Structures are given as structure tokens and as C-alpha cells.
Amino acid sequence: MQHKGISIKSLLYSALPSIIVIIISIFFDSIYQSAINKISGGEGLVITQDIVAINLWWYPVLVFMVFILCLIWAVKVVAGKIEDRHPSETEVIKTIEKWSGLVDGIGTALPLIGAAVILFTIGLGKENQKLFLEIAVPFEIKSLFILASAKLFESVFDEYEIQVQNLYDSRNGKSEDSMMMNGKIEFINLPTEYQLDEMNKTIAAWKETVDSMKDPQFNESLNKILKITGK
């Protein structure tokens, strides 16, 4: 199953880990509720069966749908750029990274908001423990599941980036071998004819200097100079 040269099947496989995290988060509400029911009261702590945690099963699912929309929009934007004005490969990659960064930013921000909610409910005092256990903690737990899902969802954008690079190279008639050859040619810098002539002149002058130092007359003149200077 492909869309404009992009394998949707490969993208779905890459999204499986993050989907599994979302599924686990859906069933975690009952686990949390059972844990609350088993907590025994301590000093200054009153836990009863009346505490019913808010069911936020839809919260991670809703945010995950936002992740999917970001991916779909990234595919749409990149496909439009490639078809309309043939952008550079760097521009295409930067566009994908922008949407990937948005997903990561959402996943990172929500647990921070959850932490702020927890601090707020704690600040309300012990008389508002119920608000802390019923709303603040479940929201933070779900936000952490979303963070894990967002981090795993980055692999989907990585897979899409690889496919776009392959598609981009194929449309421009590039292959790995040709790119390596281009790289080799780029680094080969042959000297010009003028540079060769200058090199030959330098070598000839150096050879002439060395030969003159071997001449007996040169050695005799050098000895006279040494005697004059007292060396």
C-alpha cells in the first residue's frame, strides 16, 4: 500500500510501539482505581471507597490522533513541495523535522502541565486530597503515557524521512554509487599546466643549488669565508 511513492505499511509498522503504549494507557484506569481502593488510611490520610478516579481513557487517544494529523499534514506539505517547486533535500528534511519536533513538544509539555496540576492540588491542603487522587494523579499518569508514545512516534517520522530521501534521490537520478563517485571527483584537484611549470622550475633551482654545493670550488670558497670569520 503506497501513496505517491511512500509506503503506508512501513509507516504503520513504525507506529506500532506507540500504538501499544496508547492501548495500555486505556486499561490503566482500572489498575489505578484498584490501587486506590487497596490503600489503607494513615495519619492525616483518609481513603475510602467513595474516591473514584476520573476516567481519562480518551485523553491519550485524542492526543495520539493529533500525532497522526501532524504526520498526515507533514506528508501533504512535503509531497506538495516536491511536486510543485522541487525543493532541496535539506529543505524537505527540515520540514519533516519541524512536524516531528511538534509531536515531541506536545508529548513533553503535557507531563509538565500535569506536574503543575499536582502541585496545585497539593497546595490546596489535606482537605482536598480527593481532588488530588481523583484528577491530578490520573491526569499526570496519562500524560506520561502520552510522553512515551510521542517519543516512540518519532520512529514514524524517521521512517518517512528515509522514504522521502530515497524517493528524492530516485527522481533526481542519483544512486549511492554515483554519489560516492561524485564525492571522489570533487576531492580530486589536479594541478594546472602553469602550476606544473612552476613546480618544475622550483625543482630545477633546488637541484642546481644542491649540485653547486658539491662543487670543489664552492667548498674552497666556503673554507675561505670560515677562516675570515674565525670560525
How would you describe the overall organization of this protein?
By secondary structure, this protein is mostly helical. The chain has two domains: 2-185, no CATH class; 190-229. Helix content is 80%, strand content 2%. The protein has helices at 8-38, 58-85, 89-123, 129-171, 176-187, 193-213, 216-229, and strands at 2-3, 6-7. A hairpin with a 2-residue loop joins strand 1 and strand 2 (6-7). The longest helix is centred in the middle third of the chain and has 43 residues, at 129-171. The termini are far apart. Mean pLDDT is 79; it is low at 175-188.
What is the helix content?
over 70%
Q: What string gives the helices and strands in order?
A: EEHHHHHHH
Question: What is the end-to-end distance?
Answer: 91 Å
* Number of E-state strands: 2
Number of domains: 2
Give the averaged pLDDT, no decimals: 79
What class do helices, strands and sheet pairing give?
mainly alpha
Side-by-side strand order of the widest sheet: 1-2
Radius of gyration: 36 Å
Enumerate the spans where pLDDT stays under 50 for 5 or more consecutive residues: 175-188
